[in-house]
Amino acid sequence: MGGITLLCRVGYSVTLHEREGRGVQERIVDEVAAALREAKSVVVLTGAGVSAESGIPTFRDAMEGLWEKFDPMELATPEAFDKHPRVVARWYDERRLQCASCKPNPGHAALAEMERRLTGKGGRFTLLTQNVDGLHQAAGSANVAELHGSIWRWRCLRCGLTREERGGAFDRYPPRCECGGWKRPAIVWFGEGLPEEALAASERALRSCDLFFSVGTSAVVQPSASFIHVARSRGAKTVEVNREPTPITRLVDWSIRGKSGEVLPALVARTWGGAEGGT
Ligand code: OAD
Predict the structure, then answer these.
(1) Active site (catalytic) residues
(2) What average pLDDT is seen over the chain?
(3) What is the reported pTM?
């Protein structure tokens, strides 16, 4: 999957094809819990919805989504940085500082618990995230591939040095490297290639998974949006957890409608026992 670049499909229509109603949803959670107990290799793809309950805005939710208020072409492309380096660097630094004030929520904790449970009995668990906030790792997830990079790492455009930036606001924009070069966030912008290592990890995990989850993502940004097709073609069962329907809702075996911070702890508790809402 090398050389794959970030692409977005604009606009989508959804055919509602899910089983509605609370009793039905409860049964679906039971079925997914049974599949999790049986699973030997699980892949979870996450998006901005997983961090929404930590206070980090999503991109495409009506009203609150970042791309509802800002034009991604003016902020999330290399051309935008070339044109307005100060504005773009400052915008990402504000997002970095916002992430610094946020903590993992019960959805992140449940995914970390899912990994511990599965690997504890010799299974495999891979978390593929489009999120750049590092909250999965902060919650204790170990096997995480960051498909879109990280808001915490900034890379010098002159010498290539990449460093973690955990301090306060930069004193100027764009921030400068010791070599004098400009630094940019090590985030994948539209039209750029995804990190080779994260893509290779995704390919490996998808090739062998028997259960695939898509959680809190609108499933419109490629290549992540196509992971479900890869998983399905390899025979994996598929689950979506989302507050809203998405283009993949009608493709999955089980669609669970709700907030990931509520659904995932309940699912973990249903699968392995323990108090719902905590892990
Ligand atoms: P989006 O903002 O496109 O989608 C967020 C999804 O989360 C939507 O489908 C919501 O319905 C759902 N959602 C919101 N709150 C939720 C909650 N509490 N529980 C469950 N679901 C919830 O975000 P992504 O799909 O992550 O790329 O967007 C993909 C990429 O597009 C991002 O990584 C970003 C963006 O441009 C970069 O910045 C490189």
Answers:
(1) 148
(2) 91
(3) 0.92
Give the ligand 1 atom nearest the CA of 148.
39
Domain 65-101+150-187 has CATH 3.30.1600.10: yes
Å from CA of 60 to ligand 1 middle:
6
CATH value of 5-54+103-148+194-272 in 1.10.260.40, 3.40.50.1220, 3.50.50.60, 3.40.50.150: 3.40.50.1220
| Atom nearest to 260 CA in ligand 1 | 19
User: How does residue 140 score in pLDDT terms, banded at 50, 70 and 90?
Assistant: very high
AA letter at 47: G
Residue 21, classified by CB atoms within 10 Å of its CB into exposed (0-12), middle (13-18) or buried (19+), is: exposed
Cα distance between residue 278 and residue 264, in whole Å: 10
Q: What pLDDT was estimated at residue 16? A: 36
